[in-house]
Amino acid sequence: MTGERGRPRHRKHRTIGTIGHRGHGKTTLAVAAGKAAAKAYRQDAGAVERIVEAAGSTRPALAPYSTHSAYTTADCHYTHFDTEARHVGDLLGHASLDGVVLVVSALGAVPPQARDHLRLARGAGVRRLAVFLNKCDALADPEAAGEAEEAVRALLRDQGLDDERVPIVRGSALRALAGDVFWEASVIELMETLDARLHA
């Protein structure tokens, strides 16, 4: 059996989390991802129910400060944990994450909390990372996105990561959530990036 994009339906179950500073769009991205997945991929209600059940063993410890959603992409079944910035350390300590998405606003400098969250993720043994450069729709100067991306890559290098191997997706979670097709594509690009990194 194949998916609507022609790929075999041999999906892995993967658990991810969003990390990053308050106000940079972690929760908006988590909600937009679920909505975009429902629109772009054929959803299997039974599979989604199994994802929720699989998350049950982790959920009690995370319940005081975290929410989770479940969705299906072309290659993976995802449990997606989202938490407040101040509880990222708790999330990383209680959830066995296959990967994380660092959400950074393209507006302004990279916040110190992004550095702290990367350090915590690496300390928790999370090795698969992607970056969502959010709020690109609000940039007056198109070149500013490139400057913001370079600032993130500098942070990654400073943390001892190979910045050329960490994918950075430019997008707008808020506009994607509102149904803007152009920006929905950025969330789908992120999902396909995660599929490629986490499916193996």
Automatic annotation (TrEMBL):
One Pfam family matching this protein: GTP_EFTU
Name this protein carries in UniProt: Tr-type G domain-containing protein
One GO cellular component term: cytosol
Molecular functions per Gene Ontology: GTP binding; GTPase activity; translation elongation factor activity
InterPro entries in alphabetical order: EF-Tu_GTPase (IPR050055), P-loop_NTPase (IPR027417), T_Tr_GTP-bd_dom (IPR000795)
Tr-type G domain mapped to chain residues: 12-196
Source organism of this protein record: Streptomyces mobaraensis (Streptoverticillium mobaraense)
Superkingdom assignment: Bacteria
